[in-house]
Amino acid sequence: MVLITTVGCRQASLQGAPVDVLLIIIGYLSVLDIVRLGQTCRLFQQIKSHRSVWSSLYRTSRLPRPPGPYLSQPLELLQETLIRSARIQRNWGTSISRPASSFTIPIASARIQPLGLVAYRWFLLATEDAIWCYDLSRYHSLDHSEHAEFSVLYQCNGEASYQRPMRIVSTHTTDAKQLHYLVLEEMHRLPDQTVHRTTVLFGVEGVADGPVSLTEVAVLDQNVLFLGNAVIGPRALLVTGNVECYVRQDLPRRVRIFDMARENRVYQLPPHVLQETPVGEFDHTLKLFYVSTSTHIISLLTFLHETADGPQFLTNIEAFELPSLTYASNTPTEPQTLTLTHSCKVSSLYLMDSCYLLRNSAVDTLTGNTSLTVIAKALRSDSIPPSASLIRLRLSLHHHTHDIACQQIWVGNAPFRPRITLGCSSLDGCARGIFTKTRFTGRDVRSFTLDDEADPEFVMSSARIDFPTSQADDFMSRIVGFDGLRGRLCKMFDRSDSGHFLEVTDFA
Hints:
It is built from six helices and 32 strands.
């Protein structure tokens, strides 16, 4: 590779440069450019395999990826993660996202509940009395007339109890360990005909090479209400009730917090503290969301309250600090109540749904303040007519006070009533997701990429996904699994004449 060629002068070549200089130059290249450079000659192939190259690239890249780099992560893992993410990003968020491949799997049972995609390879669903697991790596060439084989992970036991599986939740911890949990509600009918409800958490094991199994890790007492939602973060998993619009200021909240980092301890939250009274305790506009970080549990309560100028929307944001990992105490028999440490009120902000952690909490070494970023769908009242948009909420928890500074940054317009799924978050501000909306011409599914460090105008890029299925079939489909890190999307088609089938689409 010639850099300078002049008459009477000796040629200057990159191959003759010191290795330290080459490492600096390569640090300015993109992931795919480094891969191509390694294919040119033996020297660059050796330099491309240098761990410092990929560690530096992993640390500074704006591609969605798990936390890292860590010494426990092999060089091959850093390379494979970045290269695959770069290939996905090459056509993700442009004008049209075109999948690389797609295949379908027929499902035998008529009454099923999809639970989700686990570690890119496994798909779990629930029937009336069991949990099934499909190994998707076996069915790339499966004929549509065949029913796929599956393994049974869990079987209901006894006629006096029945189970309602809720969903699969997955996360990466701050040390890059990947965890998967199945949230299940058990209902036991007592002799007096009353129903006792408990929430059981199962760890999903064996996802690396199989076979997959379920291990019970905790039982959360949720007898007061039906199971509603599950939210997972890098440290804690929250299980909430399904009555989101019910707020009581005299009772603890209907939420249980499972601490994955402190011997699987369970916490609860204190009652709501509201200076403004919602229009009604059961008002349909009242919504409650939780976000789990490595240091705090964030509560976001949006409601309509009366003012001198008429009803106005208000969002109450509260932060509850998780116990320190170095704090030692005896294991309590009852759930501990977390302490409210910070709060603020944001006027004229109405959060609609889909709250996700975009940037994990981090402490500023100079000020001691804790900062984090949440992404959500909100109603943008400054537009005519009002429209739904994604919004970034940059929260700063002040070290010396109990205040929260909230910076609102609108990301971009979205369909008014889309279903938003964030399938990959690096916890440092990079994320990849999808949103869907049913139209007269079919179900519109769009891909998007978020970057918390980008300018507001360029923070989000989106594209329509060009699926292989027809528009007529798309009306009967629903998104049931998404792995944004490795670029896999699962859609379930419900057909009365031929049952169900699962369409698996890969983008890399």
